[in-house]
Amino acid sequence: MIDDFTRRGFLRTAAALAAVPTLLPADPAVAAQELPDFPLEVALHRSAYRNWVGEITADGLWACAPTGPDQVVAVVNWAWRHGWRVRARGASHGWSPLTITPGTASDAPVLLVDTASHLTGLSLESATSVRAGTGSTLESLLTYLEEHGLGVTAAPAPGNLTLGGALAIDAHGTAVPARGEQRLPGHTYRSLSNLVLSLTAVVWDEDSGAYALRTYDRAEADCAALLTHLGRSLVTEVVLRVGANTNLRCVSRTDIPARELFAAPGTAGRSLESFLDRAGRVEAIWFAFTEHPWLKLWSVSPTRPPASRHVTAPYNYPFSDSVPTPVADLVGRIVSDGAWYLAPVLGNAQYDVAALGLVTTLSADIWGPSKNTLLYLRPTTLRIATNGYAVLTGRDQVQRVVAEFTAFYRERLAAYAGRGRFPVNGSVEIRVTGLDDPADAGVDGARAPLLSALRPRGERPEWDTAVWLNILTLPGTPYAEAFLSQIERFLLRTFDGEYAMTRVEWSKGWAYTKDAAWSDGEVLGAVVPGAFGQDVWGEASGTLDRLDPHGVFGNAFLDRLFR
């Protein structure tokens, strides 16, 4: 076993990654020399950038925190005139190089614009809509809504995500209607982008010959490209459609074998499909080399069931909020000593911690306002790398998708282990949502987000559901990229448009070669655009280029993706 110092060091590293980025005041003389004529009203800083797992880092970049949209415009116009690029930064809770690319040097002409410091205003626009600054966190937004009797159907688990970052990559939760359930006004079973009524972005204005603020209604054609813009724009404020808050019951189970939960369609037993029919909101977390997933089931419950514990705040799984000692010890040994063969031990330790923790913290059956069961992931949890895909299909094909994916994953993992290779030491996570439907916004002529992974395919109207698939493993795990490349090729080959189709999850890992993510030229250049249709991809790319003709909002990776 590793010594306690090593374990404490691992925990300190996780805590450091979780911290808010430090903005160091800039030397005015240096700033004046390196950033001449920078807007005087906007304070400059030096700052490091770290993505969620610390795999993409940059030290000593110039950064600023505008106090309002007008200052954002001033910064963007300065960047355009001086040949710099602007990267909006919220919580940096992502994996892919959409904000900063690997190897970005401290002297690169890249300016970080922190949104979370000041672009955080929240106000009710009407009884069924909220105006929100894009630097607001999801937790602050949902808390504000709850205080006014409002809420959403589903949301991502981390509450520290900024709204702007979530919308840029079509963030989602897990929800489809249970059998017989009717959608409530103002709610959606789809991406958060599907709730947008209007947005305000910094775009090029031909009349003034400069960048300016412009507000777009949901029915405007250009808005469709901005709803999920991947960092190719900067949105300062949005108005979201919302509905009456609901109370949700969340029941966790760890007693159903994976072979039963993920069985082939038509097999008798407790299948994932059966729980979708019953509850509509499901998530399966299947730790590597274990047999019983942690299954979460949310259901609408206006009154507290007798067996449920009433929760009055989010983050009700303390055993996963921080790294428990047994897990930290194993992770430290695996990473420090290269003991990757301990992956099965780590998987079982994570399962044991979850199964026992649910009992000892009385968290296996909780109930309360939606926010308190939807948000459950703190920044202090174990930092781990993940790939991500959305498989579009019909609701009646969900079990088939899950069965085929998990069977291939299980076979490949066993084959690698048979050769003494352990590419996965985290978990598989499975969620299910509906596809974006602009009608949910309640706006005549509303358009679907062009680049949302949940955008429907017009020629396949029977596809109404997406199965989200993620595989998590520690950064630096040997053979992980090769393994995930095989998984990706399986998904693209198997779900190729016959009864299902694969799209990438923007914020996660994809386009794998055997050595790295976001590197496969065929996936970047053909597969990703083809999954949306060349006409849709072309429309989105053309609109984003027209609204930012000087490429201020971009980086080398986005240049390659949209070329």
Tell me about this structure.
The protein has 563 residues and is of the alpha+beta class. It is 32% helix and 22% strand. The chain is built from 17 helices and 22 strands. The chain has helices at 4-18, 28-34, 69-82, 138-147, 163-168, 221-226, 258-261, 272-279, 318-321, 325-337, 343-360, 370-374, 398-418, 480-494, 521-532, 534-547, 556-561; strands at residues 23-25, 44-50, 57-64, 85-89, 110-114, 122-126, 129-133, 150-151, 196-205, 210-217, 235-241, 243-244, 247-253, 281-287, 294-300, 309-310, 365-369, 385-386, 389-393, 427-434, 465-473, 500-504. Strands 13, 14, 15, 16, 17, 18, 19, 20, 21 and 22 form a 10-stranded mixed sheet that branches. A 5-stranded mixed sheet has the order 1-2-3-5-4, covered by helices on one side. The protein has a 5-stranded antiparallel sheet with strand order 6-7-11-9-10, sandwiched between helices. It is globular and about 65 Å long. It starts with a helix and ends with a helix.
